[in-house]
Amino acid sequence: MGDHLPVDTVEQAKQNREYAAALADLLFQLADDDFILAYRGSEWLGLAPHIEEDVAFSSMAQDMMGHAVMYYEMLEALGLGRADDIAQLREPSAMRNAILVERKNGSGEYSEDPHYDWAYAIVRSYVYGLHKQVRLEALQQSSFAPLAQVSRKMMTEHRYHLMHWQVWLKQLANSTPEARRRLEAAIGKVWQDAGELSDLGPNADAIVRSGLIAGEELLRQKWLDLVKEVFQTAGLSWPGEPGKAPERGRAGEHTAELAQALATLSEVYRIDPAASW
Amino acid sequence: MAQEMTERQDSLEAACWELLQEVKDPEIPVISMVEMGMIHKVTVKAGIARVEVLPTFVGCPALEIMKKNIGEKLTEKEGIDDVEVLFVYDPPWTSDRIQIDARGKLRSFGIAPPPLGIKPGDPWEVACPYCDSPYTQMENLFGPAACRSILYCRHCKNPFEALKPI
């Protein structure tokens, strides 16, 4: 991490152009990751394996959405538009989330014949969640003080999400042969995209130089160590080096699945963006 | 003159704290936001009360209701013309901020208070708020609100909720 002096307020951040740009880049990544995965989580409502899980998954999606709001509000404070607009009116090419979080939950549509993949939901959430843990820990040292403060707060909430996914992973790993088979298939699928999580985008150097977060290699190594430990404890074999999708989400390249998600989630908002909620 | 103004401000701030005792947590009506340890700071200047609130959970949907309730309550006081509610994250709210007296109130409402002084990774053991038995089981880490979990007492057979230690 760079040895940038602490920046206590948005006003201070705005005085240095390179710093403000790097901060915005990072905030978009943080916000979009949480926002899109929260949306995918919300698509499980009514479809989770049992009613308690409906409550749990919705609750975690709500927390994640809340975290995204914090980042979007910081972007608003930086002068990049209204938080609601930033979240809901951007084109897919302006989104900076990793490809992993935009993938559909399975075949079919939410409102029509959904054949969602629960094992994929658990593995994706958990693998992403472990990366989020590493990221939040790194953000606690961020040169941007408001980011360091909220990351500390988010961490206390995020810990409960990790506990929940841990329980599911163990249960799927030690349940029927079918559960085990599906779990391993889900790990394979998540692993094809997971390598992008620690990507800090085209402006990675400026982000790290500004002392906003630790470098990609350190984030990646810490995350891999955590996943290794978790897989080992659950008796799962190591899937090897994580891959990356052909599209680079951090650079604004996305799949059609994101465009569809954005169209659905912003449908009501687009009808009347000036309405008060 | 200056001294008089400061005294007047101090008394207005004290009155605000008093009134905030009447603003209950929208989801736990037996306990006030002051008792929850959610009110960080109150300042009054030129008739404007500025209240700094520490959210328990970042994405809590009750925050807007709290904001509205605080605004309505404080403008009841003569001398307070406007109220500004700010959500702040430094210091972060932790469950240790819940006042000691309030912990008993939570229990009487059927909610187990969070253990004090818990550190990340510490085990969370929950005694039943009705019969105090430690023979309880976690039904769902996530309850009707982000800050609560659902448990079941194997001793007195009551389901109950517990505030998550954070």
TrEMBL record, chain A:
<dbReference type="Pfam" id="PF05138">
    <property type="entry name" value="PaaA_PaaC"/>
</dbReference>
<dbReference type="InterPro" id="IPR007814">
    <property type="entry name" value="PaaA_PaaC"/>
</dbReference>
<dbReference type="InterPro" id="IPR009078">
    <property type="entry name" value="Ferritin-like_SF"/>
</dbReference>
<dbReference type="InterPro" id="IPR011882">
    <property type="entry name" value="PaaC"/>
</dbReference>
<keyword id="KW-0560">Oxidoreductase</keyword>
<dbReference type="InterPro" id="IPR012347">
    <property type="entry name" value="Ferritin-like"/>
</dbReference>
<dbReference type="GO" id="GO:0097266">
    <property type="term" value="F:phenylacetyl-CoA 1,2-epoxidase activity"/>
</dbReference>
<protein>
    <submittedName>
        <fullName>1,2-phenylacetyl-CoA epoxidase subunit PaaC</fullName>
        <ecNumber>1.14.13.149</ecNumber>
    </submittedName>
</protein>
<dbReference type="InterPro" id="IPR052703">
    <property type="entry name" value="Aromatic_CoA_ox/epox"/>
</dbReference>
UniProtKB/TrEMBL annotation, chain B:
<feature type="domain" description="PaaD zinc beta ribbon">
    <location>
        <begin position="119"/>
        <end position="164"/>
    </location>
</feature>
<dbReference type="InterPro" id="IPR011883">
    <property type="entry name" value="PaaD-like"/>
</dbReference>
<dbReference type="Pfam" id="PF23451">
    <property type="entry name" value="Zn_ribbon_PaaD"/>
</dbReference>
<dbReference type="Pfam" id="PF01883">
    <property type="entry name" value="FeS_assembly_P"/>
</dbReference>
<dbReference type="InterPro" id="IPR056572">
    <property type="entry name" value="Zn_ribbon_PaaD"/>
</dbReference>
<dbReference type="InterPro" id="IPR002744">
    <property type="entry name" value="MIP18-like"/>
</dbReference>
<dbReference type="InterPro" id="IPR052339">
    <property type="entry name" value="Fe-S_Maturation_MIP18"/>
</dbReference>
<protein>
    <submittedName>
        <fullName>1,2-phenylacetyl-CoA epoxidase subunit PaaD</fullName>
    </submittedName>
</protein>
<dbReference type="InterPro" id="IPR034904">
    <property type="entry name" value="FSCA_dom_sf"/>
</dbReference>
<feature type="domain" description="MIP18 family-like">
    <location>
        <begin position="14"/>
        <end position="86"/>
    </location>
</feature>
